[in-house]
């Protein structure tokens, strides 16, 4: 699929517009995600209308939600991040939001197209569609073309929508000012900021809120008396060392599967 990281066609219009006026140009995209074929309908007037852009692909690779996490895909476009998150957080839930009504319709259709039952799509700008709800993960490819004021508002409001220990993940490249936003987060965000991934000129930033407060002395004593259940996967057989030279590089979980014009 061809990379697509620019605004939609049409003078004076960008993908943060609520009702794009650019004519429709629907097409189908297919790609493999962790061995599963995913099918999406995309359209003009929505970000990445010609294919999965490299920044979003890098963000998807960096998500890594827990199976029970509650995830927010903020500015979902046609829904690639939200569908991937729902596949990983199978016992959790995903909310996809976008101000662009065309994107909202596409994302809803793509949830149904990929048989996703633990996600929903809501319309509206930034955090307006989720009220005071909180999430374990907020993932976004921010609307850089909408301007710095909009992006900074997104970043400043994010902590109020994260659960304790929650993570904000955002992707951008140098020409979009990602280094500026990284410096802003390192100064203003109430928690550590790290670079989660790099590739094709993009970087994924992760900003994490403080974990839940430790229990007081009395609660710690009560907890110590209760046996802790084993977590799934906490015991595993050690893999034998087979040698045989250097390890092969880690492959991306996202693979091209072509598109139908």
Query: Whole-number radius of gyration?
Result: 20 Å
Q: What percentage of the residues does DSSP assign to strands (E)?
A: 25-35%
Fraction in helix = 10-25%
User: Under the CATH scheme, which class?
Assistant: Alpha Beta
The shape is: globular
Query: Distance N terminus to C terminus?
Result: 11 Å
- Major sheet characteristics: 7 strands, mixed
Class per helix and strand makeup: alpha/beta
Q: Can you say what the CATH homologous superfamily is?
A: Vaccinia Virus protein VP39
The unreliable regions are 1-14, 226-243
CATH fold-level name: Rossmann fold
How many structural domains in the coordinates?
1
Instruction: Please identify, by name, the CATH architecture.
Output: 3-Layer(aba) Sandwich
Strand order of the largest sheet: 5-4-3-6-7-9-8
Q: On the 0-100 scale, what is the average pLDDT?
A: 84
User: How many E strands?
Assistant: 10
Which helices and strands appear, and what pairs or packs with what?
Layout: E1 27-33, E2 36-42, H1 54-62, E3 70-74, H2 80-88, E4 93-98, H3 101-113, E5 119-123, E6 135-140, H4 148-157, E7 162-173, H5 178-188, E8 193-199, E9 202-208, H6 217-225, E10 254-260
